[in-house]
Amino acid sequence: MDTQGRRNIDPADQWVLDPATGTYQLRLEPDAAPRPTVPGQSGHRDPSPARQDQDTGRGQGRDTGPAGDDGGDGTGTGVGTGTGPTDSPAPPPGGGRRAARLAARTGATTSTTGSARLGGGSADAATPTSRRKAKTKKSRKKKALLWTAGTVSFVLVAAGVGGYLVYQHFNNNITTVDVGNAGSKDVTHTGPMNVLVIGTDSRIGLGKKYGDAGSVGHADTTILFHVSADRSNATAMSIPRDIVTSIPDCPTKQKDGSTKTVPGTPVRLTTPKFNESLGVDGRDPGCTMRAVTAMTGLPIDHFMMVNFEAVKALSTAVGGVDVCLARPLVDPKSHLNLSAGPHNIQGETALEFVRTRHALKNQSDLDRIKLQQNFLSAMIRKIKSSGTLTNPTKLFTLADAATKALTVDSAIGSVSKLTSLAKDLSKVDEKHISFTTLPVIDNPNEKVHATVVVDPVKAPQLFALIKNDVSLTAVKKPSATPDPRLTGPKATPHDTRVNVLNGSGTFGAAQSTVNWLQNTQGVNRSANGGNAPATAKTVLEYAPNQADQARSLAAMMGLPASALKQGTTDAAPLAYMKLTLGKDFTAPGTPIGPPTAAPADLAKTEAADTACVK
Predict the structure, then answer these.
(1) Which tens digits make up the pLDDT trace of 249-284?
(2) One CATH from 3.30.70.260, 1.10.150.120, 3.10.20.30, 3.40.630.190 for 176-467
(3) Of 421, 440, 384, 411, residue with least CA distance to 225
């Protein structure tokens, strides 16, 4: 009851079942229509005084019909003063007080003793004086079905409203950045996809607990996540933050809608470092995307950026991440203190784990990258194996934490778009997700090596693998028949003779190849043949009696069978083959043409690997 004595009405009670049609109707006024008898409630007392006293026929009485009787023979006895006509319509089927009250309102025929028989099957219910035909009773089963349908409809509507509110909640969590033409406008597509995951070391809002409280954040941890066109495999390539590399000009969107171009920075012996592609001079994630493309030649479709809090929130949302340590890890600076053996880490401990360097053997960023790859692999396994994606509560918690933690490009800046992207990426089996690190070497311009540079030989090989969708794990694909030009015995490096000519258009390509052949492969009988006319394709010309030397050189250089051109007549015993470098040549030792497998010495970790961290 409210303060005015009125009854508070449950909105659900405003929808009533019409016994004649079996459908629900909206009744806004309390007495606009008689309330139907609810199965199992025919003997319940209606507490509303308004319903008892609003008609000229005032009645009082008690139900004597059995509680729960659904349209049986319950009789309502009582004394009443009714002014309605004796030929008024008969009451609807059903016993109990509501039927008696309806009879009082309509002036239903009563006996001289003041008793009225209201049973659905009674003779009085269908007297000759009735102007309305008695309604045919619905079976218990049909009524149950109708009420079930109504309940399900209500739940579906409620879920729809709740789903919309949740959708809006998640949308409001997400922060977006307009990166212009640095990324793709398509959420997903049929070809390969490259997503840049950036872990920023921003301390804004975190106080002095993690060091420089005013740091706007740099590209502290960056992973290029490549998914193959057929979604059979994925490669996650970590990019060390201390790589000395050029940073291109970067147009950035300002708050007022204008565009400001941040000038690029060329290489100056020991600067700039890759992590300066974010934060410095107002550079946004689009600048980091452009820097990665300039370094690798790989286009970036989208980016996702997270901060320190994201590691804590996400690791907690999945119920902790299971890691195994081969030895204790203790780091006073990051406050990490874990013994050897298995651990379930989350929250603050998870952040300490991915931040530590001083607990590692070399205390380097490269070692920390390996630790982070192990952590991410374990998180992928946890999400896919713990039922997180099928448990609504866990999924909501994870989605809430993830959307709050994410900053993404505007092309994927909504829940629906992120969901579409996630479904596309989740097609890859965790057994075929490989983590690796962009190959680097110590910076030759430093006496004390604090920075690194891209490995000029191994890095292009990895870029070619990614560009050509070559999996770093063993993915079953139709085996190709080996080309006969590449099969058969191979000559030793000492017995391999070749003149190298430069038709690539790259200055010094012939001499750098000769140096590589002599110093790393042992091909001492190699020489610089000078320049040749520009050519698109690299070609190795040889005589039939030099086929074993050609196969040996092709294996070293990564030449495809199409690059081998055999003559018709044999050459002199000590004659040299002729290798003409074309525009498809990138670096000595880098395969020419699409690679078919990852190099044997490429360091990698598979997401399914559960080995303990050393």
Answers:
(1) 999 999 898 999 999 999 999 999 999 999 999 999
(2) 3.40.630.190
(3) 421
